[in-house]
Amino acid sequence: MSPHPSVARIQRYSLAERVVHWTSAITYSYVLATGLAFYSPHLYWIAVILGGVPTARFWHPVGGVVFVATLVLMLRSWMGDMRITAVDRAWGRAVNHYIVNQDEALPPSDRFNLGQKYFFWVMVWGGIGLVVSGAILWFPEVVPWNLRLIRMAAILAHVACALITIGAFIIHVYMGTAMVRGGFTSIIRGEVSSAWARMHHRLWYERVTGK
Amino acid sequence: MANLRIQRISGHTGTVPGRGTQRQEQVAKLIDTTTCIGCKACEVACMEWNDLPFRETTFDNTYQTMPDMAWNYWTLIRFNEHAREDAPFQWLMRKDGCMHCADPGCLAACPADGAIVQYQNGIVDFQQDNCIGCQYCVTGCPFNVPKFNPQTKRVFKCTLCSDRVGVGLEPACIKACPTGCLHFGTKDDMKALGNARAQQLREHSGFASAGLYDPPGVGGTGVMYVLHDITNTEAYGGLPANPRVPWTVRVWKGPLKWLGNLAMVGGLIGVTLHYLRYGPKQVKDDSNGGAA
To answer: What's the angle, vertex CA B228, arms to CA B225 and CA B234, rounded to 5?
Structure first.
């Protein structure tokens, strides 16, 4: 006897996808924490806790490079899923229903909804901005004095890109852990119930189950 | 003791121990480029007093045997051959080094608590023990002065011999100058001396645009120059006409920081309020909370 459809398990994330996601999450959290320490004297203590400020300064760019590498891997596996479609635009117009938990009034989503896609692209473009400006901050001596405007711009661009990703990150963590029940388990164990898939990602559910 | 005389600290919250606690005159170095003969005695004296490791000299058919300042070379005479239309060929020799700005771009950009301090007498000093090696000071400086030591991951520059000045001596370079083109004293005295010399140059020596270089864009400097031609500062080995703390540093430390703080705190408050008001999204026909 097959299990009741509401508790049947559907694989949502492969092991590789989950490993990449959590590598990304850990490295982002590290560069976020150490970056905040460099951002404000009021948060300098974070780097003290994380092994001392020179140590944080040493590992921050390394963590950033690993984070961007995970973005490349995510781009490779999710590029197609993250393309914004007409269905998403309809969903976006009805987003107020999503915010107030009236999900039944929303157009169906595919594997990812518009909010997830926006988050993904904010992190990708933010990550590109961070890695480019970060490389300049990492090796300022390679920028000649007469091109110092590039170095000055990098200081501003790095913090601006970081703040944009932080805004997206706050919402992402909130939704993944507290708001959308089942989401957190899905990125850990890789599986969701049929009912969850139907409710949150009906088009994807229909595609993978053929129902 | 030195701690008590600090009036500004990089990357610092809370009080600054030294502001107004002692009588301290603003000090300044005056460099008269018109009487510099390029002997480099000041460079040697700096190396001697600060026990800096020696560097190899280079030779490129000019007197510029050191191409640039370095983490272990804090002052450098820049030799500039200047062709003029109205007068014979001219040497412009400028002793380069930290300008000890009243409004230091390095200190504004520095995120490390206590890595850069400004004493009450105006000297801007790097405290390598607190430096984290991020090199933001390198970008914040409008004069291209701070230099990074890649081995120790610390940044160095001229201290204006704060250790000597602190015990009532003048900086080592001043001691060594054979022509007396280097002067040291209170900022007011040095300004008066520099202006008098510039006036003399204008009125008696045919340098109609001679002037004192004390750029207001950085609040004035603790190192000032008498120049033959104040209208052509760039000819003195890239001395900026109107140096300023980079506007990107100002935007970052000012409006962007407030905007960012507001967005981050607002975001955290926002998601908390959302949860309290609307709660989680539950999957309705699911006995297992959506989890597999």
So the answer is: 70
Tokens matching residue A59: 């590992």
Domains of chain A by residue range:
9-209
Domain contains B246: no
**Domain around B273:** 254-282
Q: Do A100 and B278 touch (CB under 8 A)?
A: yes
Beta bridge partners of B116: B126
> Mean pLDDT over all residues of chain A?
93
Yes or no: say if B290 and A182 are a contact pair by the CB < 8 Å rule.
yes
Residue A67 and residue A64: Cα distance in Å, rounded?
5
Structure token pair of residue B286: 């699911």
CB spacing of A54 vs B133 below 8 angstroms: yes
Residues B219-234: pLDDT tens digits?
A: 999 999 999 999 999 9
Longest dimension (CA), chain A: 75
On chain A, the residues whose CB falls within 8 A of the CB of B135 are 137, 140-141
pTM: 0.90
Q: Return phi, psi of residue B57, to 5°.
A: -85, 160
User: What's the CATH number of domain A9-209, 1.20.950.20, 2.40.240.10, 2.20.25.110, 1.10.357.10?
Assistant: 1.20.950.20
Report CB contact under 8 Å: A178, B113: no
